[in-house]
Each structure stands twice: as C-alpha cells, then as structure tokens.
Amino acid sequence: MGFADLALKGQVPADEALKVIVKEARRLQRLTNDILDVSRIDGGRISYMMEEIKLNDLVLNVINSARVNVGDRVSLKTAINTEKDLVIRGDRERLMQMLTNILGNAAKFTKEGAITVETGYSDRGKGDVVIKVSDTGGGIPGEVLPNLFGKFVTKNVGNENKQGTGLGLFISKAIVAAHKGSISAHNKDGASSQYRCLSMQASEHTSISLQNPLSFLS
User: Fold this and answer.
1) PANTHER family annotated for this entry (predicted)?
2) Is the pLDDT of residue 186 over 70?
3) Which pLDDT score, from 0 to 100, does residue 8 have?
4) Does the pLDDT at position 27 exceed 80?
5) What share of the chain is helix, strand, coil (3-state, %, to 5)?
6) Would you place residue 192 in the very low, low, confident or very high pLDDT band (cuts 50, 70, 90)?
C-alpha cells in the first residue's frame, strides 16, 4: 500500500498512484491465477471444455487484446488464411490463455520490431494445424532455451519492463498437451525467435487448402 499512503499524504499525484496500484493488483491476480493453474496441472485436476473453434477468429481476438500490452515499439501482425475457416476442437479460453502467454514471452525478448502470428496446416501433413509466433528480437538466450517451458525459467530474463510470473510457458505446454498437440521454440539465425505453438488435428468439418494464400494484416 506504499503508493496509496503517499497519495493520501499528497506526496504523489492520485492518478499516478492509482495506475501503480492497478498495475500491481493485476500482476498479483495473474500470479495467483498461474499458481492455481500450476497446482491443478500438477494434480491432474485442470478441466477443459471442448468445442469447435474458428482458429483465425481466436487468434485475431488475442492479438487485439494483446496490443495494449506490448508497447509502442513492437507491432503485432498476423499471417493467416482468410479464404476458409480453419476449425479446431478445443477449449477456447485455455487456447486464448496459451497464445496470450506465448505473445507475452515473445514481447519479453523483443524491445522493438514486430511479432507475427501465423496459422495454417503443419508441414508434416495429416490434417494437423499449427500456430507459429515469430519475433524480430535478439533471440532467446542460449542458457534459457533448453528449459524454456519449465517453471520460473523466464521470470528474470528478457525485457525488464515486461516481467511475468515465469509460469506462463509451463502452463501453455500443459494446455497444448491436453489438446494432443506439441509446442517448441527455437532461435533463427541468432537474431530472432520462433515458437511453434500448436500442432493438432483439425476438426473433421475443416476444409482448407495449403495452396490458399496467406494474408498479412497489421
């Protein structure tokens, strides 16, 4: 309550104190939610509500929500197939949580430039779909990369202005696994990083062609 006390004493402007208090309240809420999710994952108690989801709509919703958090120096872009709906079966809220965590982690390693989210079919075929997140940052530190999806691995690395709980990627990996998918990350030419966030079976109602062009939206 330090800033609240300072505001009450007139030592800092009330609006400045309120911004700090709200920011810290949200950080504590994220930490609490993440700890609860980790406890549920470790105990096998996390639940999922599966439904058919239009993947591109989900990605665009996450992008629009994330723009306010990445800062002015980083732009969010999409490279998605816009000719036909790419439909998957999954838990909408959990998949949005997963992608939000991935974008947040990409932002930690991207001080300026762009983060691009791409959707489409996996190159391994079999009707698998994939979400790829690429950034123009300096890449993920080599000592972090092997254990990137562990607990607290990224808590104190990356952009100091975008520190998180260090649990988001662990939770994201569990969410993807629950959808019978896989998740990985690698550096490209030492100058940027790419997350292959989701590789899972498309819904039987999906009809989409690899030959369809990708549309870049900013």
Assistant:
1) HISTIDINE KINASE 1, TWO-COMPONENT HISTIDINE KINASE
2) yes
3) 61
4) no
5) 40, 25, 35
6) confident
Structure tokens at 59: 């990605």
Instruction: Name the nearest CA neighbour of 150 among 175, 133, 167.
Output: 167
CA–CA dist 44, 130 (Å, integer): 25
Pairing mode, strands 113-121 and 74-81: parallel
Contact 121, 130 (CB under 8 A): yes
The token pair that represents 138 in the structure block: 């300096």
CA atoms within 13 A of residue 39's CA, in its CB half-sphere: 6
The residue behind tokens 């709200």 is 22
Sign of CA dihedral 3, 108, 90, 59: positive
H or E element at residue 7:
helix 2-8
3-state secondary structure (DSSP) of residue 176:
helix
pTM for this entry: 0.79
User: Which residue from 187, 180, 171, 218 is spatially nearest to 202, judged by alpha carbons?
Assistant: 180
- Residues sharing a CB contact under 8 Å with residue 140, sequence separation 6 or more, in sequence order: 109, 148, 185, 187, 193
CA nearest 204: which of 50, 38, 89, 116?
89
Residue ranges of E strands in 87-127: 87-90, 113-121
Tokens at 208, concatenated:
């989409």
Pairing relation of β-strands 87-90 and 51-54?
antiparallel
> Are 192 and 139 contacting, i.e. CB atoms less than 8 angstroms apart?
yes
The kind and range of the H/E element at 70 are: helix 55-70
